[in-house]
Amino acid sequence: MEMMSELLSPMLRVILILVICGFIPFTAASFFMVVIPQKEREFKKSITEMGISTSRTIRDSYSVSRYIIPVLFAFLIFFGFITAFTVGGNGGGEFVDNVFLSGPFYGENNQAVMSQSFSVLAWAFAGGFLYAAYNIIRRLRALDLAPGVYYSAGIRILLASAVALIFSFFAGEESVTNPNGVNELFKLKSSLPIVSFLAGIFPQRILNYLIERFRDFFANESVTERSLGLYNIEGISIYHKERLEEIGIDNAQNLATASLTQLIAETPYDARQLLDWIGQAKLICYVKDDIHRLRAIGVRSVFDLLKGNKDRIVLREIADAVGLDTPILEVVHGQVVNDRGITALYNFQENKNSPARDIIATRAVEEDNSFEDSKIIKPRG
């Protein structure tokens, strides 16, 4: 039995390393072999429905070359941590005194503190890996496995490890007993595995909490920055915000000037939803905080200003109803009407909402796929 245990233990370690590290390239390969063709079909259907003519393809945004470095980055992070925990954490051996495991006790060769730090890092890695695996699989199922997901997975492990390790140093090396005989640090030290595991899942929330606590110490956010925030757009949640930030869209102004075809290609959101967000973002850029007044009477986006050929009388009635200056609303309406880009987006939205267009687009994509299949199976000669 002892001999089998000795043989099985190294084998289990190798299997664990292969499973955890192999998860990264396996999901990337699955995305290109299975998901990309499906995403390409949906992209063609959307642009056909809206009557858009473009040379952009899905593979322009999801090329293999863009994934090499992110996948390698995540792979090396995972490999380094899991190898250290499976090979380096044999138990019974002594740790070499180092600043990462010892922290404020560096130079004292304190094995208790280093063992505690090693355990904390292991639990932080476990939480970070489980969350990263869940997020990658979820994004894979949503046809939205962007290269940045692998960067986020690796950085999450590093951030979670740092947060958990710093927190563990507060517990110190020994428990302290108060005059009443109650162990002050027992609960803190016994909760370290739980805190470390949660740090792996929610590292950013801890940082956000600290930022909120010390917001007054840093530069205050301006009124314009608050009014242009993505949360001012109806329908955008924290997940949508984080996803848009991955492609450089941090506020309403960025979204208002973003390329529609790029957003359709590089995000998992439907064209109708994207058009609605862009229309809202453009109106927010015009009216800023007054957007809430206009929404109260059903004017949510620039497209609502285009509907019904609104004349000066209607605009005056709208302005009076929401408490805006009539000249301001007239100027905004004039700019919207004369903006060819907004008019084009409005026409795209109308085409997208047309049932007839949906049927035409579906047939066009099916014929295109049939043509591609015929080229593949067509015999030579």
Quick description:
With 381 residues, the protein is mostly helical.
Describe, in plain words, how this protein is organized in 3D:
This protein is an all-alpha fold and 381 residues long. It folds into two domains: 2-217, no CATH class; 223-367, no CATH class. Helices cover 71% and strands 0% of the residues. The chain has 20 helices and no strands. It has helices spanning 2-50, 58-61, 65-88, 99-102, 111-141, 148-169, 186-190, 192-201, 203-213, 223-227, 238-246, 252-256, 260-266, 271-287, 291-295, 302-306, 312-322, 326-337, 340-352, 355-377.
Element layout with pairings:
Elements (H helix, E strand, L loop, with lengths): L1 H49 L7 H4 L3 H24 L10 H4 L8 H31 L6 H22 L16 H5 L1 H10 L1 H11 L9 H5 L10 H9 L5 H5 L3 H7 L4 H17 L3 H5 L6 H5 L5 H11 L3 H12 L2 H13 L2 H23 L4
Helix pairs in contact: 1-3, 1-5, 1-20, 3-5, 3-6, 5-6, 5-8, 6-8, 14-19, 17-18
Query: Roughly what is the average pLDDT, rounded to an integer?
Result: 79
**Any low-confidence stretches, pLDDT <50, length ≥5?**
1-8, 174-186, 371-381
- What's the order of the H and E elements? HHHHHHHHHHHHHHHHHHHH
Largest sheet: none
Which structural class best describes the helix and strand composition?
mainly alpha
Gyration radius, rounded: 28 Å
The counted number of beta strands is 0
CA(first)-CA(last) distance = 67 Å
The outline comes out as elongated
Q: What's the total helix number?
A: 20
Helix percent reads: over 70%
Tell me the count of domains. 2
State which percent range the strand residues make up.
Answer: under 5%
